[in-house]
Amino acid sequence: MNLTQQVINGLVLGSGYALVAIGWTVLLGAARLVNFAHGQLYMLAAFLAWAAMQKLGVSYFVAVPLSVLALGLLGVALQGMMQRLVMQQNLTSLMIVTLGFGYVIQGSAARIFGGDPQTFASPLEKASVHLGELWFTWQDVVTLVGTLLLFGVLWLVLNRTRLGALVRSVAEDPKLAQLFGINAAQVYIGVFVFECAAVALGAGLVAPRSPILASMGFDEVILTFVVVVLGGIGSVGGSLLAGFGLGMFTALFGALVSPAYTTAAAFLVLLTVLVVRPGGLAAR
Amino acid sequence: MTGAAAPLLRVEGLTVRYGALTALSDMSWHVDAGEILGIIGPNGAGKSSCFAAVTNAVSRSGEVWLDGERVTGLPTHRLAQRGLRRTFQQNAFFGELSLLENAMAAMLHEHSTPLGRSILLPWQEAAVRRRAQAAAAALLTSFGIAPDDHGKRPGDIAYGTQRLLSVVLSYGAGARALLIDEPAAGTGGGDMKRLADLLVDLRRRQVGVVVIEHHMDLIMAIADRIVVIDQGRKLAEGTPAEIQRNEAVLEAYLGRAA
């Protein structure tokens, strides 16, 4: 085993985990809302980008922004439907509603795009870099850099701008925020649109690694749960750390033990961390 | 009603029902700019329900007018933007934000760039943010909250100052009508004096102040008029002196002892 190569693999995997999870992290942190349709949104975004390339003939670099835009619009529609439940913070119903959205999206995607696996190809995936024994693609570089940039900007916005203060104030107490004249409903829409757009970006960068399937939603983001909870619910920095930690763990565990048991092992790590630090990595 | 002009805030026939329980029944009162209206009554009389009803935070029947304009159907945040705001019995601030950020949140509507512009033109956001920071610091300082405390979180300042902060935040960039729910709860002595001064300061700034309070000495000292609520209904209304002489009020508070 080449350790440096595994570290590179870990970084690449980890940036993907973190990127796919970031929307959910913000959603949980800012709206105290879980979205069990997250995986199906990831799947849908990948298929939309794929379809744009296949049917419209646009390039990968146009298809991904298109799919990000489409998911953002879908976010407005979904949040519009959930608005009253969100304002009441009716979390149990919301969980089931998002689960329902997920199945509707999955069914519709299978109906429209068919049940066969498809190749969502990125030109950057084919452009690889070889440094001696080490190997990675430009897609990996873009994913890594893009993830770091997105997390950096997001951290700045949430912690250093009034927009961020607004989001944090609604997260803490939507009723009080309304009494301060803040339109909490609008903030919730904004956060949900970010969640949908971010997972579309994640799909655009991560999904080309493997064939895409209409039924892949849940499996593809199962590790998102681990990243979000491990990082400390709603913590941006924590989920970046958790994403990279999990990526590194997956790469090394896969190389040293067996790739077949990585998911089980990742959840074992999650359980261990939560027993020792119930608040996740970011807990004070 | 005083004078020819419409009162700053008028509520008419407010009724709140929680299932079978009628928490507030046919409540009517008004407050003018630069006036303090006290609302008193036993626990469970419907005082806080009254505030929730005015700010459209519970489903209710009845009417609300602000500056002579009917605002019954406006949602809470629109009322707040028009200057009708309230505080809670509990401290009303964001525990995870600093005092300065809290004040900025409280003044957000007045000092803000629209969401789209703040994303597309971040440098404008920065300039607006600096102005908002200055305004927030000025707000806190003008109500006697020292600059040393502005960077702290609310949990790290004295309890008496926390109570002040809740009221100052609700005033924000200049509320017109403030509904203040038990500002002096849990305070005493010097802190209560500071709160009384704050309420009088708000009256001097031409705010229409409505205060729910259990401390009779405080409310009798600063209120211009008082409404007494018992079991969801208005029992009496008048100046502090009139209320102190009112038979029905004495009976409700003390039982048929007199």
Automatic annotation (TrEMBL), chain A:
Instruction: List the GO cellular component terms.
Output: plasma membrane
Tagged with keyword Transmembrane helix: yes
Q: Mainly resides where?
A: membrane
- Could you cite one Gene Ontology molecular function of this protein? transmembrane transporter activity
GO terms for biological process? amino acid transport
- Annotated InterPro entries: ABC_transp_permease, BCAA_transport_permease
Q: Does the keyword Membrane apply?
A: yes
Membrane topology of this protein: Multi-pass membrane protein
Pfam families cross-referenced by the UniProt entry: BPD_transp_2 (PF02653)
- Quote the subcellular location field of this record: Cell membrane
Keywords assigned: Amino-acid transport, Cell membrane, Membrane, Transmembrane, Transmembrane helix, Transport
| CDD domains per the UniProt record, alphabetical | TM_PBP1_LivH_like
Q: Where are the transmembrane segments?
A: 6-26, 58-78, 90-114, 134-158, 179-201, 221-244, 251-276
Give the family per the record. Belongs to the binding-protein-dependent transport system permease family. LivHM subfamily.
Its name, as the record gives it, is Branched-chain amino acid ABC transporter permease
Q: Which organism is it from?
A: Vineibacter terrae
